[in-house]
Amino acid sequence: MSPKTLYDKIWDAHLAHEGEDGTCLLYIDRHLVHEVTSPQAFEGLRMTGRTVRAPDKTIAVPDHNVPTTADRTAGIKNPESRIQVEALDKNARDFGLINYYEMNDVRQGIVHIVGPEQGWTLPGMTVVCGDSHTATHGAFGSLAHGIGTSEVEHVLATQTLIQKKSKNMKVEITGKLAPGVTAKDITLSVIGKTGTAGGTGYVIEYCGEAIRSLSMEGRMTVCNMAIEGGARAGLIAPDETTFDYVKGRPHAPKGAQWEAALTWWKTLYSDDDAHWDKVITIRGEDIAPVVTWGTSPEDVLPITEYVPTPESFTGGKVAGVRRALDYMGLTPGQKLSEIEIDTVFIGSCTNGRIEDLRAAAAILKGKKIKDGLRAMVVPGSGLVRAQAEEEGLADIFKDAGFEWRLAGCSMCLAMNPDQLAPGERCAATSNRNFEGRQGRGGRTHLMSPAMAAAAAVTGRLTDVRKMMTDGVAA
Amino acid sequence: MDKFETFTGVAAPLPIINVDTDMIIPKQFLKTIKRSGLGVSLFDEMRYDDDRNEIPDFVLNQPAYREAEILVAGENFGCGSSREHAPWAIKDFGLKCIVAPSYADIFYSNCFKNGILPIVLPQEQVDILMQDAEKGANARMTVDLEAQQITSSDGQVFSFEVDSFKKHCLLNGLDDIGLTMEKAAAIDAFEAAAAQARPWV
Ligand code: SF4
């Protein structure tokens, strides 16, 4: 047998049909659904009299526009948001989706956090969702990617997706990370190196010692942003860390099925002599805590650097950077660590898991946020929130001056009332710093939870390492 | 879906790289549960000021380009989210074809599913068409999908590549789901075999 990559193996195991022109039908094991990209798909089914082929493999949860304030149990005030969430309630009922976590269920949260948490996401699966950050699930060694609404409808109706195979790209992070450097710094640094289109046409497999040493939470952070690098999906081969995380989750296999699953999962790795179309290697030791300065996730630099000059770029990027700096209100040559912020947002499917909250709380313990700053923590799910309360993290955040919210997407894309005002500057743990992403005219700097916590204390972008002694939060 | 027919139309220049889906259609318009009606909000933040007045400088607000059917843009067009609202807004505005050096994956495939043709051409050729588009309403280009050619206002012909299956569906206005359902037997067989091999799924 010819050597295969992990992607090749999962692809081959899910190929339901191959046409003469190479167009393939890929069977889908898990279809995650949220309220924003699904209404038109269900409408399409109704109009054509079609049904959902595999309701047991379809998981639905509202997340993008649910309010994250305590009063949400009283219902959603914004009529459009309410209509969208109610539409999902109704579609789940009408189409027999039993795996539905409604807004006030404690298990509700961001779809990409709920899936793994409930054990829906397992190694070797194909996972899709009408959301680009579906790449997150690749952390389990599953082939996971975002799809458009027409494809949502296609998967609902046929449990398959029309696909052409992507190319294989290996991103290896060797060695160890320095103290203060996290999974978020890895993933941002990779995009900084490849650019937002560097992964276009590829499925990325992340490997190397620094990746192996990450927890599942960290691996999800890395894969989450594969899409920001343009890739179709990002994945990490499953290992003991993966199996330990999965074991005992509500929808993970049990007993003899667990053993059978484990036997197969252990075959899920790229063969030594597998073919790679592109390889990128980064030394873990070379990665610093980073922040973004522009309006594209590739606009990333170590916190110790300075705002770049447009002329230091080439091609269309010169005008792009000029436009970005103008939008961001920054001057070339300015020290990144002197940029003052107004808001801090900790949350999102990139960094809304328990480990992220622990990292931020470790920095904030016994400290206060800078006077006049607005700061909020939005846990990624109701269960993350409950665990953080149990561990005492919620109190640390509240004592420091953070708002402690209910689970949802919140200020990651500002579809609910959590938005930036024009010109307002935010240190955010989310994944996109596009113009207007967090509110019209809002300015976003992406960074890790620890870096965002450090920024909250000083009121400006801050090197978290200065708040640590011997790698531990001081 | 309507069949994609050869047409001659006005091309609007948008010389920006990394045009992301938040620029194409900001999230406040994702709250709709319909596919139609998004055209007025296309490029909303570039098109309107805070009081919802049109910004006269923006290309699609200029008289010459209000009826544009083609958009010429920079590389990595459509990057960002998977929102199909982006192609819905583009289509609803009246644009049928985009020309750029490259696109983000999901956006690219979303276009075909909505009857929009995203043409990929090398940067130098996009530059030529960009200059052509800047001439205004007189610069009408012709898009011929069957022949895989786009012709500039002064008669220069550029050939482009397109996946044969996608081309076939676009030309004939075919619905993917109907086509896949014809393969139901293969899906049934696969599903049964997979349930044996991986019963825990
Ligand atoms: S948290 Fe942000 S990126 Fe993640 S699913 Fe929600 S809106 Fe999308």
UniProtKB/TrEMBL annotation, chain A:
User: What PROSITE patterns does this protein map onto?
Assistant: ACONITASE_1, ACONITASE_2
Q: What is its EC number?
A: 4.2.1.33
Q: How is the cofactor bound?
A: Binds 1 [4Fe-4S] cluster per subunit.
NCBIfam families named among the record's database cross-references? leuC, PRK05478.1, PRK12466.1
List, alphabetically, the Pfam families matched. Answer: Aconitase
What's the protein here called? 3-isopropylmalate dehydratase large subunit
Tell me if Heme is a UniProt keyword of this record: no
Q: Which GO-annotated molecular functions does the record name?
A: 3-isopropylmalate dehydratase activity; 4 iron, 4 sulfur cluster binding; metal ion binding
Q: Give the family this protein belongs to, as stated in its UniProt record.
A: Belongs to the aconitase/IPM isomerase family. LeuC type 1 subfamily.
InterPro entries in the cross-refs: 3-IsopropMal_deHydase_lsu, Acnase/IPM_dHydase_lsu_aba_1/3, Acoase/IPM_deHydtase_lsu_aba, Aconitase_4Fe-4S_BS, Aconitase_4Fe-4S_dom, IPM_dehydratase_rel_enz, IPMI_cat
Q: Which gene encodes it?
A: leuC_2
| UniProt keyword annotations, A-Z | 4Fe-4S, Amino-acid biosynthesis, Branched-chain amino acid biosynthesis, Iron, Iron-sulfur, Leucine biosynthesis, Lyase, Metal-binding
Automatic annotation (TrEMBL), chain B:
Q: Which organism is it from?
A: Roseisalinus antarcticus
Pathway(s) served: Amino-acid biosynthesis; L-leucine biosynthesis; L-leucine from 3-methyl-2-oxobutanoate: step 2/4
Alphabetized UniProt keyword annotations: Amino-acid biosynthesis, Branched-chain amino acid biosynthesis, Leucine biosynthesis, Lyase
Quaternary structure and partners: Heterodimer of LeuC and LeuD.
Give me the segments passing through the membrane: none
Give any Pfam family that matches: Aconitase_C
Gene Ontology biological process terms from the UniProt entry: L-leucine biosynthetic process
The name of this protein is: 3-isopropylmalate dehydratase small subunit
The record's catalysed reaction(s) read: (2R,3S)-3-isopropylmalate = (2S)-2-isopropylmalate
> InterPro entries this protein is in?
3-IsopropMal_deHydase_ssu (IPR004431), Aconitase/3IPM_dehydase_swvl (IPR015928), AconitaseA/IPMdHydase_ssu_swvl (IPR000573), IPMI_Swivel (IPR033940), LeuD (IPR050075)
Superkingdom, natural source: Bacteria
Q: What EC designation does it have?
A: 4.2.1.33
Q: Where is the Aconitase A/isopropylmalate dehydratase small subunit swivel domain?
A: 1-124
Family under the similarity heading: Belongs to the LeuD family. LeuD type 1 subfamily.
Q: State its role.
A: Catalyzes the isomerization between 2-isopropylmalate and 3-isopropylmalate, via the formation of 2-isopropylmaleate.
CC annotations in GO = 3-isopropylmalate dehydratase complex
Q: Name one GO molecular function term.
A: 3-isopropylmalate dehydratase activity
